[in-house]
Structure formats: C-alpha cells, structure tokens
C-alpha cells in the first residue's frame, strides 16, 4: 500500500544529520526522496566509521557505507552530481523543477553562486517549498557562522542543565549522548515542510522555510526555559533529578540502578507504603510535590538507604504492581532485546543492492489506514543515477 506521502517528490541537498533526518522521515512515509551527493565521496557520514556496513575502498573509488549513514538515509535514491560545475547545477535545477520540496543545509547564501538558492529555484518552480537548515538562521549577527550540534548544545543552554551538580563527583557540563539538536531540528523542519505543503495545496503558493539549530535548541528548553522566564533564576545541573518533581531520579538499589518517577502525591504515598516507610508519606515536609521539591535534599537522603536495601527486580515488580512508575537503565543491547521493543517491531532489516544485510531502526509512527513499510534501505553512492537522471 502506498505510504501517506507517496504523492510527493523531495529533492535532498542536505548532508550529515539534521537535513537527512528530516528527509528520511518523508522517505519512511512513502515520498520519493532524491539525495544529491558528491561524486566519489558522497555524504560526509558515509565515512564516519567504524563500524561500517560496507567498507570503503579508496583504490576502487568506492565510498562505502558507515553505520552512521544508515541511521538517516534509508529509503532514498542517490544520484552523484557535482553541482559546483555549470552542468551539474543545471541537472539539479531540472530535478528541482519536478520536485515538491527542496531541503538543504548549506551556510547562508552558499548555494547562490550555483543558482540553487530559493529565489533561483522558485523561478523554475513557483510553488516550490524550500527548506534551509543552518546553524543560526538567515539573519542575525551569527548568520554566517557554521553550526554543529555539540557547540549548539553548549550555546543554547542544554549543557548548563545536563550533568552532575557542582560539588558532586564528576561535576561538569555534559552533552546529550545523541545529537538531539540535529534530530529535533530535522523533525521541526519536517513539520514546517508539511505545514507549507498544506498552504501550497490551498493557495498554490510555495515558500521558503528558515530553520536554525540554535532556534530549535532554545525552543526545546521547554519547562527549563519556562522556569527561568517565570522566576528570573537560571536553572543549573541536577544530575538525574528533575527541577519540578521529586522524587524523580535514579537511585542505587542492592544490585543496580533504578529510575523512580513519582509524578503525584498519591504515587508518593504508595511508594512509601511499598518501601516500608509510610511515615514519610504523612510527613508534612513531603506531603505535596511542592514541599518535596523544597525539601529535596532531606527527602533523597532518606530514600537512598531504603532503595539500596533491596534488589532492582524486587522494586520494579512491586512498584509496578502498586502503580508507581519506575524502570531500569538499559544498555542499548538491552533495549533491542526488550520484549516491548521487539513486539513493536522497532528493529527492521533490509538488504543492500549487493546483497549486504543492514539492520535499521523503524519509524515509530503507526498508521491504521496507510501502514508504513516495507522499509527501504540506504542507497549506495550514485545507485539511482540511471533511473533519475535518465528521466
């Protein structure tokens, strides 16, 4: 069955992660995504290994395929075009004339000299939706700077609230373990493109979408930004604790760590009953979430020995039965062995053009009328030259 976006053609001029993550979303939903790559080299992430699904062979001029590349490029069609030449730029303009959407993530103005910027392409396709992803946007004092996820996590405040608090062992600002700014930016870009397509379908009018990593990082500060704007006090690092809820953090048990996620007063009282300390649930210092947050240090000091007295499995089973949210801290290997993850089909497999198997993570969306899949695989460099350019 065709996917819900099978009527769309996306021209993908992006590379690395934020742009490809966005366009992979469209490929997952059935759109034809044409990925333009540099001849001989391809997307930078083809070489970001090990591990490699296909080893590069520089002597044979084969770019290979790092596992990193597979996370953001499945289901796309690859064409190798050097658009820094007049002939290559002309080919890309021809492709743009047949596309609904163009996604690019070059520095501001970087495509103007090739005639591949929004103003140039709207001249050949007036209803084109054109999405530019940059570090800092199309205007402002930083607009000409390059932006990368790690530095944006720092500049945008995320690292100031991530890591152990000052005075604790290992205290320092930390980045998140995956490139969350790139990923969020990719999804904001995809949402913006869908909104622009809806506008185009109603009015016939295309438009330019400006998405910046720094803007997205500031937007995704969420409750931490709201806390600051309401109080004027900048939040700091709390390790695994939550600034607005308590107890909502990791605790050591007798044989490993447990995440305790108490979300309301009733859950806290049920936890105290299970822990054999009902008096804590009745203590006026901890009766409400507001009081527990205010008296966080005292409460956590009382809870730590209670949780350390029993093994993690006992706590998880007993607390789940009592309706108190909790869970383990799984390794990624544990994640893909988890029965819920297996049941939801989040690991999928495919075969590359040369027969090489490749494992991937499925798109998490579940549609009742237009179910997703079968899943496309990442393309080899220039795999679709004949199909696409032969048109």
Overview of this protein structure:
- GO terms for molecular function: CoA-transferase activity.
- This is CoA transferase.
- Keywords: Transferase.
- 37% of the residues lie in helices and 15% in strands.
- With 391 residues, it is α/β, with parallel strands linked by helices.
- The protein has 2 domains: 9-219 and 345-389, Crotonobetainyl-coa:carnitine coa-transferase, domain 1 (Rossmann fold), CATH 3.40.50; 248-335, formyl-coa transferase, domain 3.
- The strands form 4 sheets. A 6-stranded parallel beta sheet has the order 5-2-1-6-7-8, sandwiched between helices.
- Strand 12 and strand 13 form a beta hairpin.
- Helix 1 (18-28) packs across helix 6 (180-203) and helix 6 (180-203) crosses helix 7 (213-219).
- The protein starts with 8 loop residues before the first strand and ends with a helix.
- The mean pLDDT is 96.
User: What's the tally of helices?
Assistant: 16
The CATH level-2 architecture of the largest domain is identified as: 3-Layer(aba) Sandwich
Strand content: 15-25%
What would you give as the CATH superfamily of the largest domain? Crotonobetainyl-coa:carnitine coa-transferase, domain 1
InterPro entries: CoA-transferase_III_domain, CoA-Trfase_fam_III, CoA-Trfase_III_dom3_sf, CoA-Trfase_III_dom_1_sf
GO molecular function: CoA-transferase activity
Pfam families: CoA_transf_3
Keywords: Transferase
Task: List the topology elements.
Layout: E1 9-12, H1 18-28, E2 32-37, E3 52-54, E4 65-66, H2 67-70, E5 77-80, H3 86-97, E6 101-104, H4 118-124, E7 129-134, H5 149-155, H6 180-203, E8 207-212, H7 213-219, H8 222-231, E9 248-253, E10 256-261, H9 265-274, H10 278-282, H11 289-294, H12 296-308, H13 312-322, E11 326-328, H14 332-337, H15 339-343, E12 347-351, E13 357-361, H16 385-389
Parallel strand pairs: 1-2, 1-6, 2-5, 6-7, 7-8
Antiparallel strand pairs: 3-4, 9-10, 10-11, 12-13
Helix pairs in contact: 1-6, 6-7
């Amino acid at each position: 069955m065709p996917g819900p976006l099978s009527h769309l053609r996306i021209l993908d001029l992006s590379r690395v992660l934020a742009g490809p993550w966005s366009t992979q979303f469209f490929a997952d939903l059935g759109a034809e995504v044409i990925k333009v790559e540099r001849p001989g080299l391809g997307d930078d992430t083809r070489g970001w290994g090990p591990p490699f699904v296909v080893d590069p062979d520089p002597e044979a001029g084969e770019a290979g395929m790092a596992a990193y590349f597979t996370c953001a490029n499945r289901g796309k069609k690859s064409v190798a075009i050097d658009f820094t030449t007049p002939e290559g730029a002309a080919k890309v303009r021809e492709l743009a004339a047949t596309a609904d959407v163009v996604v690019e993530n070059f520095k501001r103005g970087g495509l103007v000299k090739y005639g591949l910027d929004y103003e140039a392409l709207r001249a050949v396709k007036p209803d084109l939706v054109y999405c530019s992803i940059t570090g800092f946007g199309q205007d402002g004092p930083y607009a000409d700077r390059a932006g990368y996820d790690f530095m944006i996590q720092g500049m945008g405040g995320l690292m100031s609230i991530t890591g152990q608090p000052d005075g604790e062992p290992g205290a320092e600002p930390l980045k998140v373990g995956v490139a969350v700014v790139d990923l969020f930016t990719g999804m904001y870009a995809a949402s913006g493109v869908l909104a622009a397509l809806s506008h185009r379908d109603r009015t016939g009018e295309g438009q330019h979408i400006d998405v910046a990593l720094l803007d997205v990082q500031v937007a995704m500060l969420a409750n931490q930004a709201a806390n600051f704007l309401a109080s004027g006090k900048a939040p700091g690092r709390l390790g695994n604790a939550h600034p607005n809820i308590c107890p909502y953090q990791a605790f050591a048990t007798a044989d490993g760590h447990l995440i305790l996620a108490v979300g309301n007063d009733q859950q806290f009282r049920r936890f105290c009953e299970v822990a054999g300390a009902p008096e804590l649930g009745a203590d006026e210092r901890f009766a409400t979430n507001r009081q527990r947050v205010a008296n966080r240090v005292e409460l956590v000091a009382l809870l730590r020995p209670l949780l350390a007295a029993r093994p993690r499995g006992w706590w998880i089973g007993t607390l789940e039965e009592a309706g108190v949210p909790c869970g383990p801290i799984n390794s990624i290997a544990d994640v893909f062995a988890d029965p819920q993850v297996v049941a939801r089909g989040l690991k999928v497999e495919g075969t590359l053009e040369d027969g090489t198997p490749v494992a991937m993570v499925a798109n998490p969306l579940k549609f009742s009328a237009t179910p997703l899949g079968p899943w496309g695989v990442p393309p080899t460099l220039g795999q679709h030259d004949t199909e696409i350019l032969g048109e």
